[in-house]
From TrEMBL:
Its main location: membrane. Gene3D superfamilies: Rhodopsin 7-helix transmembrane proteins. It comes from Bos mutus grunniens. This is Olfactory receptor. It comes from the Eukaryota. The chain crosses the membrane at residues 23-48, 60-78, 98-120, 140-158, 192-216, 237-258, 270-290. Residues 41-288 form the G-protein coupled receptors family 1 profile domain. Putative odorant or sperm cell receptor. The lineage of its organism: Eukaryota, Metazoa, Chordata, Craniata, Vertebrata.
Length: 317
């Protein structure tokens, strides 16, 4: 299709992570292992939280949705990365590119809101333990989760719709391993100033709108912890929120830098994208299972129960 003297692009070429066949083979093995670990870790968290009645609490309700989001976020990009690492030509259609960018924005955006809701949960548990049941009612938890999905979907819809109205001429090479909305702007022959302003404003509103409640919650949490007289008491209280704080640092640090820095296809930009879109979904289950006593105990109980059931079934045969 042509527009004036320009050819309209309907397909993009992804440069990927490397053009060296040997490095691509190593990256394929690495990303395949990461994806399998992500699937196993997050599915295990979902199974354990659902199966163990001791974990039917607000914090683990949010954690189960975090595991679901990590599964979705990883599955939006990693299978395509694996396919491209085995292909000579790494192409994606315009519609496929917009769809991938849309789902990245939804899953990553929802995770921001969910981490913010989890910070409020930790604030209620540590600063107001006697009122925790009233502050974190099931209805509120459900509303926070659905609100997270709704606001992130609205943000993704607006930015993707604006990107869908752009024309792409001649240049069709994306200096990235996946299609994210900011990567499309340098390729457009349309005026992208509105797109840039909307993306910047929505990223700042989205980011600071979720980060400020986290900062507020942890400011009160730190104040409460410091008011505890015993060292062991302070350490025990802090351990209940250390997993969440680690997850927030991993996700927000790399996610903010990816969407606020200029799109250039630089190695640093690719590292930030891999960090929040590939590595974080893998390490979140490890963070919460290795640093949370309740989850570790639930994993042992669940594995013990399934092993006992399997042993009884084998005996009956």
């Amino acid at each position: 299709m042509t527009l004036g003297n320009h050819t309209i692009v309907t397909q993009f070429l992804l440069l990927g992570l490397s053009t060296d066949p040997h490095i691509q083979a190593l990256l394929f093995v690495l990303f395949l292992e990461i994806y399998l670990l992500t699937l196993m870790g997050n599915l295990m968290m979902l199974l354990v939280i659902r199966a163990d009645s001791h974990l039917h609490m607000p914090m683990f309700f949010f954690l189960s949705h975090l595991s679901l989001l990590d599964l979705c976020l990883s599955s939006v990009t990693v299978p395509k990365i694996l396919k491209d690492l085995l292909s000579e030509t790494k192409t994606i259609s315009l519609r496929g590119c917009l769809a991938q960018g849309f789902f990245v924005l939804i899953t990553a955006g929802t995770e921001c809101f969910l981490l913010s809701a989890m910070a409020y949960d930790r604030y209620a548990a540590i600063c107001h333990p006697l009122l925790y049941g009233q502050m974190m009612k099931k209805q509120l938890c459900v509303q926070l989760v659905w609100g997270s999905w709704g606001l992130a979907s609205l943000n993704a819809f607006i930015n993707t719709l604006l990107a869908a109205n752009l024309d792409f001429c001649e240049n069709h090479t994306i200096s990235h391993y996946s299609c994210e909305v900011p990567s499309l702007f340098p390729l457009s022959c349309s005026d992208v100033s509105i797109n840039l302003i909307v993306l910047l404003c929505s990223s700042l509103m989205h980011g600071f709108g979720t980060l400020l409640p986290i900062v507020f919650s942890y400011a009160h949490i730190v104040s409460t912890i410091l008011s505890i007289s015993s060292t062991s008491g302070r350490s025990k209280t802090f351990s209940t929120c250390s997993s969440h704080l680690t997850a927030v640092s991993f996700f927000f640090g790399s996610g903010f830098l990816r969407y606020l820095m200029p799109t250039s296809g630089s190695p640093l930009e690719l590292i930030f994208s891999v960090q929040y879109g590939v590595v974080t979904p893998m390490v979140n289950p490890l963070i919460y299972s290795l640093r949370n006593k309740e989850v570790k105990a639930a994993v042992r109980r669940t594995l013990g129960k399934y092993m006992f059931t399997a042993f009884q079934t084998a005996e009956n045969r």
